[in-house]
Each structure stands twice: as C-alpha cells, then as structure tokens.
Amino acid sequence: MSLIHLLCWLLSARLSLQEIINIAKPGCPTKCGNLTVPYPFGIGSNCSMNPWFYIDCDTSVDPPNMLVSSRNEFRLIDISESQIRIKNHFLTSLCGNRSMNFTLDFSETPYTFSDVNRLTHVGCSDLAVLEGLSHRYVAPNLTLNNFAGGCVSLCSDDDQFHGGSCPGNGCCQIPVPKGAVFLKSFISSLEDRWGNVKSKPCSYSFIVEKDNFTFEAVSGLSEGAVVLDWRIGTENCSQARNSSNFGCHGNSVCIDADAVVGGYSCSCLKGYQGNPYLPPGCSDIDECINNPCHSTAMCVNNQGNFTCECRRGYSGDGWRNSTGCFRTALSMQYRGWTFYKPSERVLAGFSAGTLTAVFLSLFSGLTNFVIRKVRKRNLKNRRRKFFKQNGGLLLQQQASVQDGQSIPGNTRIFTAKELEKATDRFNESRILGQGGQGTVYKGMLPDGQIVAIKKSQLVDEHKSKYLVEQFINEVVILSQINHRNVVKLLGCCLEEEVPHLVYEFVPNGTLFDHIHDDNNGPEFPFSWNNCLKIAADVAGALAYLHSAASLPILHRDIKSSNILLDEKYAAKVSDFGISKSIAIGQTHITTRANGTFGYMDPEYFQSSQFTEKSDVYSFGVVLVELLTGLKPIIPSTSEEDAKGLASHFWSSMNEDNLDSILDARIVAEGEKEGVVAVAKLAKRCLNLNGKERPNMKEVAIELENVRMAQMGSTVDTRLQEDSEILSKGNYDYGWTSTRDFGTRSASASDIHPITFDTI
C-alpha cells in the first residue's frame, strides 16, 4: 500500500466517529417496554409526525400497553418499516339469538388493512359476511369503493371442530382487500335451512393475520394480530417531492406505498442506516468495523460503500470470501526468508511491523494537530451558521448585538460554552421538565445565580423559518415586559443547532402539579387565601399584558401548567412561545387554532379569531381548576364519555349544584360568599359569547375585592349585583371537538397541546 493511502487511512480512523442513529425525535422516548418506537411514530406530545402516529405508552401495567392514536381498542404489538400490528380483540359473535357485530374504521387516517389479513369465522352451519370500503388511488384523487364477501363454515356430523388450521372443519376465511379502510362483520345462522346439526353454543368471526393463526378453543380465538399498512400522506413520491413537508431526508429514497392507496414511505439508501424521516437523514454504515476483507487486505470505508485493497506485493479482489489477496511475482519466500527484485531490497530490510511503527510515530503528532485545527474551525463555522439560522441577524436589527452585550430590555446573549458549563453539558440530572416546546434544565451561572434554561426542540427543516420567527417573537415580547408576576427572561443563546432561552429560576414548579398531584400533600399550602392570591396574581399579570404593556400582548396559552410558583408561592406567568403583540386599537388576530385542548376558547376555535377575551376564557378554566381541583378534561367513565371541565362547571352552576364539584379543601376553608363570588366570576369568564366576558382588568379588580372581603372588608356591592344579574343568563355550554382521533381517557392529556395545528 502506498504511503498516501496509509496516511489517509490513519486520518480517517482518527477523525471518523460512529454516529448515533436517530430513532425518535430528540428529547423523546425511544422505547415503550421492549418495543422500539421510531419516528414518524412517537411517544408523548409533539414526538410524532402527526396525531395519527402518536403512541400512548401506559407503563402502569407490565408489560406496558401501547395505544395507537390514543384509542383504547388499538393496542400496539409491533412496528415495521411499512406495517404495524395491533392486538386482535375485535369479535363478531352469535350465541343463540344474541349477536354482536364489529366495525373498524380507518378512513381519513394513514392506515389501511393489509391483504395478509383474513376475516376468520369459527362455528358450524354459519354464513359469515364481511362488508367494507377500500381506497383506490387514481391520480390525483383517492376514492372509496364498496366491497362484500362471505364464507360458509360446516362441521362434520361425526367430528365437530377441535382445533387445527383454517380453512378446515368448522372454520372458513374471507380475504380482506388491500387498501380497505372500513370493515363491518356479521353472522347469519343456517341451521334452520339445513336442519339441526351438532354445533358449538357460539360462533365467532374476527380479523387475524393469515399465516399466523391456529385455533384450539374459543378462549384463544382473539390472540392473533391485525396487520395495518401505514404510509405518509396520499400523494405519490413525484408529487410529494414538490411539497414543503416532504418527509424523506438525506441519503434516503422515496418509495411509493402502493398504487392502490397512494402515499409513500422512506428508506435509507444501500450502505446507509438510520431514520430517513428525521433530519439530517441516513448516515453512512462503516462496513470496515466487521472487516469483510481478506487478512492481507485493508478495508477502506467510503460513503455508502467500501473497498478492499491488497497490500503491496499482493493482488486480487481483497474479499474474505472470494479470491482474497495472493502474492505476486515481485516476491517469494523460502525457509522464512523473503527475496525481492533488486529495486526493492532496501524496503525488504524493514518488517511490516517496523514500517507501521515508523508511520504511526511520524504522523501521530501531525494527525492530532490537524484534528484540533479542523475541530476548532468547524466549531467556529458551525456556531456562526447557527447564530444566523437562529435569528441572530434579526436580533441585530433590534439593536447592536455582540458577545456579552445586551438587546433591548437588558436581555443578555450567552455563549454556548457558558450554558454547557452552567448545566454540566446539559446533564439529564439537571432536567426540570419537558414539553412541546423543548426541555428545561436547571443551571448555575458563574456568579452563582440559579437559572432555568429552555433548550428548544429540534424540528424538521421546513419548520425552521417559522420557529425562528417564533423564537425571536418570544425574546422581543419578554424583553418588553417588566412585571413581578411574569417570569423574567435573562437572555438567550444562538450558537447551538436549536436556540436556548435563559429564565429566572422559579423553584416550586407549576400550579398544575400542585393542584393535581396528590403527592404534594401538606407541602403545598393549598388554603383558600393562597388560591385567591394566585388567581389575583395571574389576573394582574394578564391585565398588565392586555392594557399596560407598551403594545398589548395576547398570551394565547394560559393554563395551570404555564403558571409557575416561586419560593413564596407567588404566581409567575410563563411560556410566551405563541404569544402575539398587537397594535393599539387592534381587536383580534386571525390564525389557525393553536393552544391547549381544554383551555381553548370555543369561539376562537370556530372563528380562528383570537381576542383578549380568549385569554379571559382560558383564565376562567384555571379559576375552575382552583375551585374544584379537577383537570380541564374529566376522564371518561363506564357511564359517560370524557368531557370538558368548563362544560361540567357551567352545567353545575346552572343547576344550582356548585357544592357537588367544589374541592373539599375549598369548602372547608373558604367563606361561602367569597367562593360563590369567584365561581360566578369564573362562569362569566367562560361565557360562550366573548363580548359578554369581563376584561382582565375587571377580573383582577373583582378578585382583589374578594380577597379584601376575606380579610374582613366589605364585599363590593357593585360586583355582587353584576354577578347576580349575569348568573341569571341561560347559556348552552355544550361545545365539544370532533376533530381529534378518538377520545383519550386521561392522565396528562389535559395538558397536551392540540395537534391539528400544522405549519
């Protein structure tokens, strides 16, 4: 091998590190139990490509349950590149005169039934029927076709079925067409037509994978799996490549899902590995790690492939399982001695080990020097790129920004090195919390100040421009605010791949945790006076944002999880990621629905027009949380579906049944007049007609009046009269959303941002 080749090999061996293969989005779990969950699927909020790929991992049982798109009946078993398998418990049964049918509906989702499924019927003298709808893709449209099929199951007179394969005695099957999105099954008995035969008491039909099913007893009929094909969108590759949200990233290939149903999937190119749905895409496989070359050859890794090069004095293809490398006529051995042509006698004096040692010592210092220089230059270029990418130039338009200097509002620009040191290189032990916007770490600055550092979430490239604008928006908005009940922004960092925000540290967590976490117990002084103070603090902060800031600011995501509590349990409003400044005199902004389900103003949801009264509605939900101790989404029970807390509270007020939903601690500690006054105020805030709601300034004043009354002052008579007048209104609060995929039975579902807001 030439000297140049050896040098290149040494450099590449030192400089190349095996990249960590991305499985899930950064900051998101990769496993639920023993099952790996790769993106575009994701566990938790904002970890999947869209709501249909959301996986709810229930770790309260062992092994954990995995629900697809939060639907209780779809329990996930396995995920592959193009299919998922869900547990089969969809049964049609016929027991005497009693029958039970099933329907499965995957229309308007990225899932279709695979043609490896069969409707399998087990019983005697039955007609099993399968009806449904299937997709058919004729560019550029996706249409639905009807289909139907049936089969008859028979049992021999001498031998009713005792198990075995299907089809067979007492078992028949109906193919499920590829692209089916809706299935309905029912059973019709044929005993009346064919006379009485020996039969089982009950007959059953169910969907199951064709080659993965045998039966022995009725109790084991539903243990198989249902196979669903999944895809991205409905466009084929040629159409999707022209769209801004194309899902395939670097070193990957787009594959048309199927001519029947449309859509596409992504796969890494040969010689690459990783997740093609996550930026930057697939990474090169270093085949040389397992050295497929002959012992006398050197493996050279290239992008997407590798080569085997025979050493000097050898020829051949270099492969271990092929011709390998063999000696050429340049040299031969005799009794341990090697004889060369005269021109090579000088080199013959050195053994291969000696040459390697010389080369290593000669270039070790050089390679170390090159590595340091390359890394330093790359780091500098990388940080300059990220500074520009994360909006540094936009901030410079606001003011002259240099290292260590400030932008308006005394907001400091931190370096990446400072934040790495403050968080011990973003150690997992420093994590305070994780959410849809990113991960929050606890850090300590060189002067000893404790801070909270929010590391934004890494997202797809086509969203980067929008997120930079959102980041700049939050920095500029928080730079204008100076209020004791609004969390203070200390600075930001633009030198990393995702922007970082540095806030004052608020030690006692969120109001949501203290209201709904039973483990807090006596540590949180949940007295009526404290609840009033927290409500008054938040109302005062919102009144300031709406009326006293230099430009009115609409928060747009008021909820108890965005209200932090300091060491004295004073409230601080946080998370201004989707907040908006509006011009003085401007009444609303028009935007796609964006917020948190359970807190969102139904008027805004329907009209897409957000006003200051939309913040008032969200604050009303927080008031009701304080009064009742209930979550914004009340979980479903066996008697009724999940429902919104606002709707439940409104109904209780109209039925003069407030006592039934009040928190026991409020009933025990609060004065009845004050509790009723706050409840009536909350009802006014939750009025479906935004114009009938009070503004935040009025809310703040009324809450302060109630606080004064609790301390012995006289309740403001005008407040009481207004509340009594408004309480006589008869409003129908029955708003629900049907845009979500099913209803989720709750744990932390009430604080998950709604997912139908796309960019």
UniProtKB/TrEMBL annotation:
EGF-like domain: residues covered: 284-317
Residue intervals passing through the bilayer: 347-371
Domain of life assignment: Eukaryota
SMART domains (alphabetical): EGF (SM00181), EGF_CA (SM00179), S_TKc (SM00220)
The protein's name in its UniProt record: Serine/threonine protein kinase
Pfam families documented for this protein: EGF_CA (PF07645), GUB_WAK_bind (PF13947), Pkinase (PF00069)
GO molecular function: ATP binding; calcium ion binding; polysaccharide binding; protein serine kinase activity; protein serine/threonine kinase activity
Organism: Handroanthus impetiginosus
Membrane topology: Single-pass type I membrane protein
Localization (cell): Membrane
